[in-house]
Design goal:
single chain; 55% strand; mainly beta; 0% helix; three-stranded parallel sheet
Length: 208
């Protein structure tokens, strides 16, 4: 348990791997900072739980267990890089990215299942998938930036609005009728494709 200030863990790229079924990270007001690409990685073989107070900050977290991970306490996503490599992160309403935060969700072959508090979403959702996947609730409601740069199709099941940028580099975003482009938003396409029938508001821009 650590209660004051930040703990800086490891050198560039060092990570902490947890593979237990019941995980608790404690220390009110504490911060855990990983340098470079280092992160906390959950690699559980079976279903696992994570208990963590809302005011504990971890700058990078990765879920890499096929059975996924369930949050049992509030988890602050503020300025956090969350990587979903495998499995579903089930968070109810307990995944929080405070307004003005710079949180990023990167999806390889996983997804989110739950709802964000109003005004507490990450700023960017990026898909680096290696096959066909179905988007979870990371694509729902208002999303500032979406990037698709993978191999395969991302199929969307929830309605969502891009309020800033949709960047298409490779792969396909199969949005159906679930996508709305907000006022002043734009699509930047260097590769890949978008399929479906999106709704478009005023001041929409397309760059190809």
């Amino acid at each position: 348990t650590h209660n004051t200030g930040d703990v800086v863990l490891g050198t560039d790229g060092a990570s902490l791997t947890l593979n237990g079924k019941s995980n608790t990270i404690d220390g009110s007001g504490a911060g855990y900072v990983f340098n470079g690409n280092g992160r906390v990685v959950f690699t559980n073989d079976g279903a696992a739980e994570l208990a963590i107070p809302s005011d504990v900050r971890i700058n990078r977290v990765e879920v890499d267990g096929a059975e996924g991970l369930t949050l049992t306490d509030d988890f602050a996503l503020t300025t956090t890089d969350l990587v979903l490599t495998d499995g579903t992160l089930r968070h109810g309403t307990q995944l929080v990215a405070q307004a003005g935060g710079s949180g990023r969700v990167t999806v390889v072959n996983g997804s989110l299942d739950g709802n964000f508090e109003t005004g507490t979403r990450p700023t960017t959702v990026e898909y680096n998938h290696t096959g066909d996947i179905t988007a979870g609730t990371e694509l729902s409601g208002d999303v500032q930036n979406v990037a698709v740069d993978g191999d395969g199709t991302v199929t969307v099941d929830n309605s969502f609005t891009v309020t800033n940028n949709l960047n298409l580099s490779s792969g396909t975003l199969a949005a159906g009728d679930q996508l709305t482009f907000g006022d002043g938003s734009q699509v930047n396409r260097s590769g890949g494709s978008l399929t479906g029938s999106p709704s478009v508001t005023d001041n929409f821009e397309l760059t190809v």
